[in-house]
Specification:
The protein has 455 residues and is α/β, with parallel strands linked by helices. The N terminus and C terminus are likely disordered. Helix 7 packs across helix 8. 45% of the residues lie in helices and 11% in strands. Strands 1, 2, 3, 4, 5, 6, 7, 8 and 9 form a 9-stranded mixed sheet that branches. It is built from 15 helices and 9 strands. The protein is globular and about 65 Å long. 40% of the residues are buried. Strand 3, helix 4 and strand 4 form a beta-alpha-beta unit.
Length: 455
Amino acid sequence: PPFLALALALAPLHASADLKSVWFVSRHGSRAPDPVVNMVCPGLSDVVKQFAGIGISPSGVTGNGLREMYSVGTFARERYILEAGFMSEMWDPRELYMDAASEPRTLQSGSAMGQGMYGGPSHFDSYREPVPIFVNATFGKDNLGEARKAACRARLQEDTQRWDAHHGEKLWKKKEVVIRALSQLCKVDLRLALDYSDGMDNLGDAIKDVTDLMMFAEREGFKVPWNMSLYEDARAIALEQLYGRLYLTPQQKTYMVGMSPLAMLQHFNKSINPAEPQPYLKMYGYHGHRELLYALAAFFRITYHFDRPGFRKYGIPSGTTLFFELHDINETDVKRLGVDKAGLHVRLVVYAPCKKALDKTSGSADVLCFAQAYRFGFYTSNDYVPFDIFKQHIQRQIQSTGTWEELCNYPPVVREKQKTKTCSNQKNNTVFYATLYVAIGAAVAALAFLLSAPW
């Protein structure tokens, strides 16, 4: 995909006065595969059983997934609490609020991050107040982070089917050797193994489910029957079709992010509005799925780059978190940061857990992997983007395509149905008109009699 961004070394936060607000989105930690993979790929059932062998329910976050999210919290603690002094060392509901998509793995991930951020317990007596994770909306109604499953579900299904019929068929034909190898692993032709219980019925979904199983099994270090070359090739297909199916058109780039960009702007604006009770909420977070992080990349023209097996360019590992920071840069720091002038700027910091976060020998995931500042494709001269330009990009993108509500027909237009005439109504009408006709006939007869009378 033609996105542009640069990953830069992360400079430390020198003072809390510089940082005004943080809005973040996080992908959940590594998990067990979805149950549907047993139907699609029965040949890998032994790999699936290994997740149950370590006590993980279908789709549930693994121990390594929790360690990943704990390390995200550790990074947030180091950067925003200890380094910048931006937030308190103990959780304060006036400073931090975290939402999650309405699914167990996103709630589990948010809880693990909260423990890492506020120095989780060493034993029960020292247990600190857990950070509550809220559900933004019930499943199927979350238009903040899951518009693809809510208001835009029907629109996405249409666009996905259109891509499958044209671009997808070409891609799958081009990658026929890889798909055949995956079919051999699954002991069934993936083009024919499409009897999904949840309504999915295409090769694209089959490839996603199988490569997800491969990715999560690799993360757990399980014994697997495939080689790294096939894993890399299969993941490349999965990534290419994901970007194509979900983010190909300008309209998809808008509706796939749902309310998120405008919600971020609202959060930032309130944090600098003197009319709002100050200090306003310092950090807002949403724990969701990879699709939202890819959607934000498409919307803001960001190119992810993680040099890890199975990810290459554009792919994001589990636990990846985007921290959008609002800074108020003063005159003294203009030259140091290389910006044109003082004032409000937005900076994107991306943190992704690495293998060090999974090191059980250390006894905890209290390690930092790496974080990078990414430049937006619409502003490549500096990783600090003037707030006005940041807002303009959001507004122009939406104006060029229409709002997500317009694109997804939300709320749907409901036309009133005409009332159906019932038998009783028809009978009453018949009696009424019959009586009327009799009365008129009688009146006419009486008039004729009067006119013909001799007097």
